[in-house]
Amino acid sequence: MKIGTIDLGERPVLLAPMEDVTDISFRLMCKQFGADMVYTEFVSSDALIRHVNKTTQKLTVSNDERPVAIQIYGKEVDAMVEAAKICEEAKPDILDLNFGCPVKKVAGKGAGSGMLRNIPLMLEITREVVKAVKIPVTVKTRLGWDKESLIIVELAEQLQDCGIAALSIHGRTRSQMYTGEADWTLIGKTKENPRINIPIIGNGDITSPERCKECFDKYAVDAVMVGRGSIGQPWVFREMKHFLENDTLFPKKTFSWYLNVLKKQVLQSVERLDERRGILHIRRHLAATPLFKGIPDFKQTRISMLRAETIESLFRIIDKIPGKYDLE
Fold first, then answer.
1. 104 to each of 15, 100, 110, how far by Cα in Å?
2. Rounded distance, CA 16 to CA 277, Å?
3. For labelling, which of 47, 61, 252, 282 has a CA lying 20 to 30 Å from the CA of 72?
4. Which one from 30, 87, 101, 162 is the annotated catalytic residue?
């Protein structure tokens, strides 16, 4: 699959953009485990053109994570165009437009998936951004605003006509937020549309190697994007790539091996921020990791782990966790 001139190979697996998750250290780790392309956290166009420091820091990319996409969101044409030009100076491989974020503070103000209620403006922003930059521009969106407005098949054609190089589709409406199951049928219909000649990337509930392969096989998408399924388990990309290539599950490592990956994430987070903020940032990964699922009487340990405020105390708790694989 190619996005512009960027060749991602056959059946690529991508790391989805996620706020407070896909910082540079997590992107690099997912890349090391086989992610074929990674995306930054969402970048607010309004904050970017005002040069808000916390926002401009999100533009930092490393050659070791390429190909990498910077994703921006906003609801004003001029602000999105100016932000796109600023992003291009940061030298990402791709610029992605976020028309899919469902959270109230974004969509409620008309940005993100809020754009699904103003298609003419969405298309105008897309056309103008494509004209403003030389790097490939892609879009990420949803099936529609709600179940009464499932517009993605027609919308994909309109976005393609604006000049985008690829389209990522999350298989939910905005109204669904992240509830229920992702519906891939309309993603498949979009891909089947004979008018569509850009890559279609499917997203939503890709949490296992088996499901990853099933979505490639059943819906014929060009790529699969993994979001929440990567939180707390960056090694999932290696497992998915192995299953796609061999149709067998990747051999399990020891429990301590997985623990060491999580501990490395903690250390990288602390190094990037500081001890207090770094540990706060990584708690989402520790809370979401499936590594601790099924360990008997784990509730109190989980609470203690998520309350730890220093590396020393956190690692002391982690190192006492009995290995479920080692106990089997």
1. 23, 12, 9
2. 23
3. 282
4. 101
C-alpha atoms less than 13 angstroms from C-alpha of 309 in its C-beta half-sphere: 0
Per-residue pLDDT reduced to its tens digit, 114-168: 999 999 999 999 999 999 999 999 999 999 999 999 999 999 999 999 999 999 9
Beta-sheet strands, E only, within the chain:
2-3, 6-7, 13-15, 37-44, 68-73, 94-99, 137-142, 166-170, 200-203, 223-226
User: What phi-psi label fits residue 234: left (phi over 0), alpha (psi between -120 and 50 degrees) or beta?
Assistant: alpha
101 is catalytic: yes
Please answer whether residues 184 and 204 qualify as being in contact, where contact means their C-beta atoms are separated by less than 8 angstroms.
Answer: yes
CA distance 44 to 75: 10
Tell me, what amino acid is at 12? Answer: P
Find out whether 211 and 224 touch, Cβ atoms under 8 Å: no
pLDDT given for residue 296 in this prediction? 87
Read off the pLDDT of residues 252-280 as tens digits, 9 standing for 90 and up.
Answer: 999 999 999 999 999 999 998 999 999 99
- Is residue 107 within 8 Å of 136, Cβ to Cβ? no
